[in-house]
Amino acid sequence: MILSVTSHIESSKLDDKLKHVGHGYEKVIPPACTLIRSTRLHKKTPTTMVGVMRGSSPGAKREKGRYSMRKFELISRPLTLVLTLFLIASPLVGQKRTGTRKKPATAAAVEPAVTFDTLLTDDSYRLYSELRNVGQLVRSSGFNDLLEPIIKLGEPPKEFKTILKWMNAHAEALASSRMFAASWPTKPKLPTVLIAVEFSTVEEAKKFESELRSLMPRLMPKPSPSPAASPGSISTPASPATLAQSENVADQPQYVIKQTGSLVLLTDKPLSLRDLKPRGSKLLAEDPNFALARNRFASEAVFIYVDVKSIEKEQLEQRKKWEEEELRRKEAEAANPTAPEIASTELEELTPQMPPVPVPVEEPSPTAAPSIEITAQMPVTNAEASSNPTLSSSPVEVSGPMDGGMFSLWSLIFGGQPKWPEAIGVAIAFEDEGYVVRALIVDGPENKGNAIPFVPQFVSGPAIALGSPNVMPADTELFVSASLDYAQMYEGMVKAMAGAEELTRRVRRQPVANTPPASPFAEYEKKLGLKVKDDILPLLGHELALVIPKKQPQPSPSPTPGVERHPDDGPTFVRAPDQTPIIAISVKDKEAVRKLIPKIVEALAGKGVNLFAQTEKRDDTEITSYANIFSYAFIGDFLVVTPDPVLTRQVVDSYLKNQTLASDSHFRNSTRWQPRQVQGQIYAGPGVIDLVSPLATGATVNEKMRELLLRVNPVIDPLTYALSNEGLGPLHELHIPKNLLMLMIAGITSQANESPIITNESIAKSVLRTIASAEATFHSTKGAGRYATLDELATEGLVPKDLLERYGYKIEINVVSNKFEATAMPIEYGKTGRRSYFVDESGVLRGGDHGGGAATIADKPVE
């Protein structure tokens, strides 16, 4: 557009010039040719134009001029394009150069403000907890129901009540805010605890910061200065620098409050954001394990993250450091041994190994019959019994012939090196009827099947629809079921056994064996003529269940002979043993397992035990018992094993009557939240839950406890748990009824509150007994027939004076003639003690609850 306007202007000037010359040639040059002639055209006539105007004839001159113009036009087009591009780019280049020159003069680029998700790096802290919607959580019924037993029964400190009151007053400001607390730092420069609260705007953060600064001095006052020395003591005068340093320490608070953007930070020491997030570091929100757990628990009110991988790395570094220090110490000792060490080493090499000196066994008195009762996990052989006269003369209670094998199996399952995950994410949700605790195990590539880190041999099998509830009785108190991978568990046991043997050889400084590890069941495999891994495990399914049923009375098969019974007495009952478990194992080949069981029992219990086997039929189910020690039956696809035939009959009868756990309404309703296919399940019925009640645990039920129990619903829903895997890792989920958790907290709080009182009362009784003994000593020695006052006993060193002033009791002694009375009364009744005590010259300690008053000789003796 600029060139077109320029062409038009220059063309007009050229036409005017030609007309002015007067040669009669008007508009000979086309307008397009004027583009190259746009400069200084009005001052000098071009050579081409002169040549055209000086032609021999007008026609020839005109044609020659036209040809020259066409030729010039073809040449000028590329030049015109280049000139156009240059004119367009010139302003842009000028702007770019101008901006480049001015950039150093401008202010530095402002870094983005620190936010909730960009404050921490992945290697700053090992423990992270987050609260969502803090204000709503503080005012929720679920949160306050948990605090009620603590406040009413626990008598928490005033700081705890102050912060709760303050948070309730600021609940609206914290309604939509988030708060996180990070602890266990990885670097020494970082604060031990970092708390951050996020607000929606910077103004809200500034307002909250000022209010927090007014609260913290009440919660964490400045440390008081060191007490002055007593007048009689000798002390070295401190230097001015030391005094100034102590004054600065006393003036400094124990906390630091900082506001940055929409965040308010609270730490235990000054915080530098550069130390908290160095350049080039990776954010915690970008860590794959953290993001995985946090996204899974995005809707829960409370989220906790533990970086187990970092903790394990720190432990390994510390262990390596200790080993290096120990190696350097041994090398230094070997290079420069001292004379006593050389002498002791030579003496140890020259001294023959003497057998240990036998410890004499005290013979029992002839009047007292020996009654030593031992519960052994392993059977005691005749040789062992005959070698010890004490054991041979006393009855030995052995649980059963299979307990030795069960003990070894138990040690194999729970033995071995724990397989810790890389991280653990925990979330807590507050629901109307209870609380939900979820835990996600973020395993590494080598621990994919390990759902319980501290049980390394517990390897989960595939997710299945559990079938054991269709077999177990409906009156079950405790039900535990899991899907297991027996093949991997077997391999883990073999490795654990090999590791234990290798460790033993290293401790004993024996050469490490290069042979492959033996099977932990090698002895039994030899007796059976079978291999556990190849011949037994393939016959089993994945599901294993353990059940503890209710104590159900059963009619006696026959009345007791020689005893007359009245019709009003009711039926007699035979109860199964208390806490007797039922084990159900799913099987793939029922007939093969049926043939194999007698061999296994004979290998475990000894030859000839099958002669004691008895069988009975219940419809199409057969029950096999071994002398009231071991019993089993095949029910559906499960092998049900119990230690008592009566219990096995109960399970079979419940199954035949369709009174199974799966048909129980409590079980169905309480487990409705669980997925259909799980890897584990736990159901605790009302009978088991009653055991955690404060009345069952023996906690003191005072007026406050009684008032709380009256408010709590006495009907407690079952406690349920499920183990599943959504593809992210093992997910543990526990549902706790609200009233159950309230009762548990009430019992724990009451016991914790009672423990100082019980301690003070025990000390008060001990002090009075000490006083009675000291009075008797003083009466027979220095007193010469008279008793001493409390000051005299303390002066003589017969009674430690500090015991009389430290434990919340007031001790008084009243001496009258040749008699004395000593009393102990709680200084604050209900806080430092409840019972008062009395003792006199008779030495009999008496006591009772007098509401803080003194006890008398009329009180009952106490132990």
In short:
With 863 residues, the protein is an alpha+beta fold.
Structure in words:
The strands form four sheets. The protein has an 18-stranded antiparallel sheet. Strands 23-24-25-26 form a four-stranded antiparallel sheet, covered by helices on one side. With 863 residues, the chain is an alpha+beta fold. It is 40% helix and 18% strand. The chain has 26 helices and 26 strands.
How would you summarize the topology of this molecule?
Elements: H1 2-21, H2 47-53, H3 58-102, E1 125-132, H4 134-138, H5 141-153, H6 158-169, E2 178-185, E3 193-198, H7 202-219, H8 240-251, E4 256-260, E5 263-267, H9 273-276, H10 288-296, E6 302-306, H11 308-335, H12 339-350, E7 374-376, H13 382-387, H14 389-392, E8 396-398, H15 403-414, E9 423-430, E10 434-442, E11 476-483, H16 486-507, H17 522-528, H18 532-536, E12 540-549, E13 554-555, E14 573-574, E15 582-587, H19 590-605, E16 613-618, E17 621-626, E18 630-635, E19 638-642, H20 645-656, H21 665-670, E20 680-684, H22 686-689, H23 694-697, H24 703-711, E21 719-725, E22 730-737, H25 738-780, H26 790-795, E23 809-816, E24 819-826, E25 835-840, E26 846-849
Parallel strand pairs: 7-8
Antiparallel strand pairs: 1-2, 1-6, 2-3, 3-5, 4-5, 6-9, 9-10, 10-22, 11-12, 11-20, 12-15, 13-14, 15-19, 16-17, 17-18, 18-19, 20-21, 21-22, 23-24, 24-25, 25-26
Helix pairs in contact: 2-3, 5-25, 17-19
Distinctive features:
single chain, 863 residues, alpha+beta, 18-stranded antiparallel sheet, four-stranded antiparallel sheet, 26 helices, 26 strands, 40% helix, 18% strand
